[in-house]
Amino acid sequence: MCNNTTFPRDVRLLDGASYGTVFKKNRRVTNRYWIVLGHQSQSQTSRLGLAIAKKRAKRAVDRNLIKRIARESFRHNQLLLKGFDVVVMNKDPAAKATSIELRQSLDTLWVDLTKKK
To answer: How far apart are CA 73 and CA 88, in angstroms?
Structure first.
């Protein structure tokens, strides 16, 4: 388990096979800003993968902010997401949203994802 300031390798989806599993077998929860795909894994840790589309957020600064917010939210909700591999994707309105809106909407999606167990 990591603390709130790091994002170590063991909590990241690192290869195509890991992403592929989540994309093929997933639970999908969405809202205005995000699409979250979750796959219940055998592991007791949660892992995060980011698929932030350049098509949806043209400017690099917007994509970097979206990724930063997703990582921060994931770190704060790791205990809730225990045993899930998740991939977070952005929707078009995410590039124009405030940091607070993005964070609150993603935090609610984590809860929704785990309720569907």
So the answer is: 11
Distance, CA of 100 to CA of 58 (rounded, Å): 20
Q: Which CATH number does the domain housing residue 41 bear? A: 3.30.230.10
With 0.70 as the threshold, say if the pTM is over it: yes
Burial group, residue 41, by CB count within 10 angstroms (0-12, 13-18, 19+): middle
Within a 10 A sphere around the Cβ of 22, how many other Cβ atoms?
21
Q: Is residue 1 part of a domain?
A: no
Q: What is the pLDDT of residues 85-111, one digit of tens each?
A: 999 999 999 999 999 999 999 999 999
Identify any residues that bridge with 39 across adjacent strands, giving them in sequence order.
85
Report which DSSP code applies to 60: H
Residues in the chain: 117
